[in-house]
Write the structure tokens for this entry.
Amino acid sequence: MFPISNCRFVYLNKLSIIFVFVVLFTNTFAQSKASEVYKKAAPSIVLIRTNEGGGSGFIVSSNGLILTALHVVDGVSQVSIKTRNGVVYNNVSLISKDETKDLALLKINASNLSFVDLSSEEISPGDQIIVLGNPLALEELEVTISTGILSGIRNLGKNTRLLQITAPISPGNSGGPVLSENGKVIGVISFKITKGESLNFAIPSNYAQELIKNAPIKPLLAWSNNGISPFNRNNSLTLPEKKPLYNLTGY
């Protein structure tokens, strides 16, 4: 006679096999989606260099509008932008900015550029997200992808919210996009808190939509490097540590 305990063992083994299969299938599907998003969005990612450091940004219109984090370009005297196809633009304009949300809208003189769309979709903690950017603002690390989940939506009062994400970010990622699995931008990377794990934060894309919608016709200022590009300097950049505009407990 076959022992009942063995039947239970066989049954549990089958459940374990099914569970492992589901996990593997889910991970493979998520990786496939991330790969699709990367292929679609990577051409819109730009590398920003300044006389003080650098960061990331992304193109939001075919005629050269670029979103980034304000602290990447705030107070600098030189700005150059390198697109994914290797073209460097040394004449950059600041079209609009939001100091309370750490957002800046830049412009380069270009046309027919690849761009990404800003999302208006509902997002919830647990949703899969993809981050693209340029760690340490180095050309050797251009358009790096990291993945994770939306771990929280933090309400800081005064109509200000932040997206907390688990995807790893580094200095230089500031200004890069956080994308949904649909390939649309749900946030702009702003800062991380180092006293903990997965405390990475982004500005929700609806604030960026408002910035674009209310942008003035004339730029606030324009940078001209007079032939001296920050890209001609040593690649070993020391990025300035600037505190975020948000006073979070424990920072």
User: Anything to note?
Assistant: The CA atoms of residues 90 and 226 lie 8 Å apart. The two ends are 66 Å apart (CA to CA). Helices lie at 4-41, 70-73, 205-213.
